[in-house]
Each structure stands twice: as C-alpha cells, then as structure tokens.
Design a protein that fits this description.
Elements (H helix, E strand, L loop, with lengths): L1 H17 L20 H6 L5 E5 L12 H8 L8 E7 L2 E6 L3 H9 L1
Antiparallel strand pairs: 1-3, 2-3
Length: about 110
C-alpha cells in the first residue's frame, strides 16, 4: 500500500513538472475615478503631528497618564493645544495633536 502511495505521488509530481509554464498576461490597473478615493487613502486621512516627551529622571508616574491629565497640563480648556490621543511607552509620552499649529505651542509647554 505504501508503495502505491509513493508511486502515485511521484506520478503527480512528474506530471506537474512536465507541464509547460504559461505566463498569464498581466491586466493593467485601472485608474480609479477622481470622485471616489481608494480605501487606503480614505482610511489613512491626514497625518497628525506627534509630540514625544521624555519624563525627567524619577518623575515617571506610577499610573498611566490619561488624556484628561494631558489636557489639564496643556491648558486645553483655556485656549491651549488640544491633544487628540495620548500614548505612554516606557519613559516616553506620545501626544498626537490634530492641529499642526498646536505642535509648537505644546512643545513649548512640555
């Protein structure tokens, strides 16, 4: 039985390798109409500036920093820069700002 299985597998492999290789013609990529953006461009959106701040030695808080805490620090309620997202990794704080003009103001505060 094993011999038959091996013979069958060898016959299939030989017939596969014996077939001529036919290259399929490539289809040209159609341009998307300007009125309908591609999925990638629709989901990507506009790039936002990200401010990266390091903690001072020994100043890293025990808990994770929240968006509300960074709002208070930057003075978002009193015409300060408004962060869109805050992420903390190791000793760095990543603050994503929606408005590029807010980047310089947030940088001077931090």
């Amino acid at each position: 039985m094993e011999h038959n299985k091996h013979a069958f597998a060898d016959a299939i492999a030989k017939s596969y390798h014996a077939q001529p290789r036919i290259a399929l013609p490539c289809q040209p990529i159609r341009d998307m109409p300007a009125s309908k953006p591609s999925y990638a461009s629709a989901t990507r959106g506009q790039p936002c500036p990200v401010l990266i701040a390091n903690y001072a030695d020994g100043a890293k808080p025990a808990d994770r920093v929240s968006l509300a805490t960074v709002d208070q620090l930057l003075g978002a309620g009193s015409d300060g820069p408004v962060p869109q997202r805050v992420r903390q990794k190791d000793d760095k704080l990543y603050i994503t700002l929606k408005n590029p003009a807010d980047y310089e103001r947030a940088k001077s505060i931090m």
